[in-house]
Amino acid sequence: MTLLRGFLWLLGFQLLGQLAVEWLSLPVSHAMAGLLLLLVWLLVTRRLNEGVAAASQALIPLLAMLIMPGVVGVFFVIDEFAGHWTAVMLALVLGTLLSVLTTLWLMRRFMPGGAASVDTEEPRP
Amino acid sequence: MNEWHASLLNSPILAIALTLAAYLGGVRLFERLGRPSWCPAVLIGALLTATGLWLLGLPYPDYQRDVAWLTLLLGPVTVALAVPLYQQRQHIFALWKPILCCLPLAAALAALYAVVIAWLLGAPPPVLASLAPKSVTAPLAIGIQEQIGGSPSLMLGGLLITGVMATLFVTWLARLFKISDPRLIGFALGVNGHAIGTVRAFELGPTAGAFASLGMSLTGVFSALFLPLVWRLFGF
After folding, report:
1. Chain B residues in contact with A84 (beta carbon < 8 A)
2. Interchain proximity B154–A77, CB inside 8 Å
3. Chain B contact set for A76 (CB, 8 A)
4. Other Cβ atoms within 10 Å of A54 Cβ, number
5. How far apart are CA B31 and CA B38, in angstroms?
6. Averaged over A38-57, what is the pLDDT?
7. Keywords, A to Z (chain A) (predicted)?
8. Measured between CA atoms, how close is A93 to chain B, in angstroms?
9. A80 vs B153: CB contact, 8 Å cut-off?
10. How far apart are CA B168 and CA A24, in angstroms?
11. Model-level pTM?
């Protein structure tokens, strides 16, 4: 029952998110708006109710399984890559390598206490 | 025999059962292979699902329609990500400055690098538009796509490859630079590798998971606001 009550809370916040998105015509998804609203609610009331905690603990491990059907689609659209195969692959692989490098470097650079590292010794460009 | 087949294909239960079986099989194989970071359980599961669809003769659009009964849960699961964020609030507040400094730059560059590389290699605007939301979580990326154009399937393919690559590169570069802080690794996974990176981060622990959810949601919201605006400015 605790689980069910928590699930109802999550659905409630998703519906609130939907209302907020429609009302303010925000460019974010209903669920993302629901996430933000629930976070604000938790931060304001400073109390995590047992049901919501139980439901999130049960649901978050399912995330991987729930994104899988979307991934399956990739095998059925591979033809669309055909014309620009090299450009697309290089952009994705090289682009991601560069962006991961940048994120790690930036985070380390701004981390308090400056987690001692080799690359923070360089002057900032 | 043919009637049974048709009746089975007509019910969404088959698609859902196939998805659960493929996912569990994917996780089992992933464990058996020694949890390789270059091939997440999701990818193995997706391959198994595609094979299952082919064997059953179930067309992908039909599968997509049937499995929507299951993927509807993606909504409440996304909302549930607020809980680890709340539970890790002290860690997050302690780092609000680096997070706020890095995020806009990191999220913008994640899109920019890919678009510029593809543009230099002569990809046309629709392909560029499909690549721009590559680090954004799928439901938000679909929203961005509606605003800037491009091909939805190419975009979802790009999302998958980006997620796998980000998981791989974060693991690899963290080892190379001797970074072991779960907050930093989690954040990098979420910003660059959206839901696939976040799944990986939760495998590493709750702190990495919370920072990945944070990175993923911030990147998603920032890109949803920023990409359509930039696209309009440059008049693609």
Report:
1. 118, 121, 123-124, 127
2. yes
3. 50, 60, 153
4. 18
5. 13
6. 93
7. Cell membrane, Membrane, Transmembrane, Transmembrane helix
8. 6
9. yes
10. 38
11. 0.81
Smallest CA-to-CA distance from B115 within B91, B80, B144 is with: B144
CB-neighbour burial class of residue A61 (10 A; exposed 0-12, middle 13-18, buried 19+): exposed
- pLDDT of A117 strictly over 80: no
* Mean of per-residue pLDDT scores for chain B: 88
- From chain B, pick out residues whose CB is under 8 angstroms from the CB of A7: 76
Rounded distance, CA B162 to CA B194, Å?
A: 9
CB hemisphere CA count around A123 (13 angstroms): 1
Place of tokens 């007509």: B10
ipTM exceeding 0.95, yes/no: no
SS3 of B17-62: HHHHHHHHHHHHHHHHCCCCCCCCHHHHHHHHHHHHHHHHCCCHHH
Nearest by CB to residue B113, choosing from A56, A57, A99, is A99
Q: Least CA distance to B222: which residue of chain A?
A: A28
